[in-house]
Specification:
This protein is an alpha/beta fold. The chain has seven helices and seven strands. It has a seven-stranded parallel β-sheet with strand order 4-3-2-1-5-6-7, sandwiched between helices. Strand 2, helix 2 and strand 3 form a beta-alpha-beta unit. Helix 1 packs parallel to helix 2. The radius of gyration is 17 Å and the shape is globular. Its EC number is 3.2.2.n1. InterPro entries: LOG, LOG_fam. Belongs to the LOG family.
């Protein structure tokens, strides 16, 4: 019998800016709508701005559920989304990421800036270290991540990134294909020297 992940909640990392690519902006909304159709709860950074706000709008307007996780210092009226069915306030950014990890069965990164990269690479690193076995997807809308993917392959070629760790990051340019990869993802065992249960 083939392995299949149950994804009932999905953490989405993306920009708190709109950007200037209409396709990315529209597909952020569509991602939210499709998540609601599949009855998947959105877990995200809690903002009403930018691509984050678009994903949340897509979910909420299609009757889905959304949990925002926002650090106290960002919780101003201009930033926080007040229409979510659940909002969790954390003391700092680190607690925000831990909370999002705990609440989510899987992760997707959409286009974004430094914050999106930081969240994505931290969660991939945690997977590499065996701290979780959840699927991680990169939604490469309109070729946004092409250059990053070239860089990751170069890291592998230079033997600074193992192929099995590169393969942790699942990539597709549309949600349907990415979701299929995520539900069939199976985490590889971490090396024995990294297994904290070894004596």
């Amino acid at each position: 019998m083939s392995h299949k992940n149950s994804i009932q909640s999905l953490a989405v990392f993306c920009a708190s800016s709109d950007g200037n690519d209409p396709q990315i902006f529209e597909e952020a909304y569509e991602l939210g709508r499709k998540m609601a159709e599949k009855n998947i709860r959105l877990v995200y950074g809690g903002s009403k701005l930018g691509l984050m706000g678009q994903v949340a709008a897509g979910v909420m307007e299609a009757g889905g559920k959304a949990t925002g996780v926002i650090p106290d210092f960002l919780k101003t009226k201009e930033v926080v989304h007040t229409g979510l069915d659940k909002l969790i306030t954390t003391k700092d950014m680190h607690e925000r990421k831990l909370t999002m990890n705990e609440l989510s069965d899987a992760f997707i990164a959409l286009p974004g800036g430094f914050g999106t990269f930081e969240e994505l690479f931290e969660i991939v690193t945690w997977a590499q270290l065996g701290l979780h076995k959840k699927p991680i997807g990169l939604l490469n809308i309109n070729g946004f991540y092409d250059d990053l993917l070239k860089m990751l392959h170069k890291m592998n070629e230079k033997e600074l990134l193992k192929k099995e760790n590169l393969d942790i990051l699942l990539v597709a340019d549309n949600f349907e294909e990415l979701f299929e990869k995520m539900i069939h993802f199976e985490a590889k065992p971490v090396p024995k020297w990294m297994n904290k249960n070894q004596t």
